[in-house]
Amino acid sequence: MSDRMKTILMIMVASLALGAWAATASAVVPVITFDENGNGTSYDGTSLPWNIGSDGGPGGMANAFYYQNGPHLVGDLLIQEIIGGPLSDVVRFGPDGTIFFYSEVPEQGESQDKADIGLPSAYYTNQYQVTEVGLEGYNWVDYTPSANQPGFVASVPDLTYHIISDVPEPATLSLLALGGLLALRRRR
């Protein structure tokens, strides 16, 4: 095989490899993001509508905070702050396309979010437990349900929920931004 033919063959192989890499790198994972205060976005970029209303699920409360999203598998996502610790939040996927968000009642001096009304007194039998990640004051869970787990959507099987369970205070946001700027400055 001539050198020219080898070069052409190598370029073709490299092009195919680069094309395959670009195709996988550009794959977009659908994400629904929401927090305890009515800031929610669906995976198609639209805002998630929210409201306060009655949760008809087991142990549900009359003044519960919820998002309206669409059909999903019913059940409760039980969230802990630390592994083996008590529950801090419950995200309930209701039968009517609602996503209820329950959170602990804040301690004295802490600001209250819309979801801070306490936890339900009972739970669906279909439940899944996760642990938060992040710093105190800005904790979250990234949850991708499998078939038969709460929140699963058969038509979007790789759907991920990015659930922010502690919304940062403005001072915390300033500190996080300052830390990012310092890290950038240090890198230079």
How would you explain this protein's 3D organization?
With 188 residues, this protein is α+β, with helices and mostly antiparallel strands. The protein has one domain. It has two helices and eleven strands; from the N terminus they run αβββββββββββα. It has a six-stranded mixed beta sheet with strand order 3-4-7-6-5-8, with no helix packed on it. A five-stranded mixed beta sheet has the order 2-1-11-10-9, with no helix packed on it. The N and C termini lie far apart (48 Å). The C terminus is likely disordered.
Topology record:
Blueprint lengths: L2 H23 L5 E5 L4 E2 L8 E4 L10 E5 L6 E6 L6 E7 L4 E6 L23 E5 L1 E3 L2 E6 L16 E5 L5 H18 L1
Parallel strand pairs: 1-11, 5-8
Antiparallel strand pairs: 1-2, 3-4, 4-7, 5-6, 6-7, 9-10, 10-11
**Please, how many helices?**
2
Shape descriptor reads globular
Helix content: 10-25%
Strand content: 25-35%
**N-to-C CA distance:** 48 Å
What spatial order of strands do you see in the largest sheet?
3-4-7-6-5-8
Order of helices and strands: HEEEEEEEEEEEH
User: How much is the radius of gyration in Å?
Assistant: 22 Å
Low-confidence stretches: 5-26, 170-188
* Secondary structure category: alpha+beta
Which sheet architecture does the biggest sheet show? 6 strands, mixed
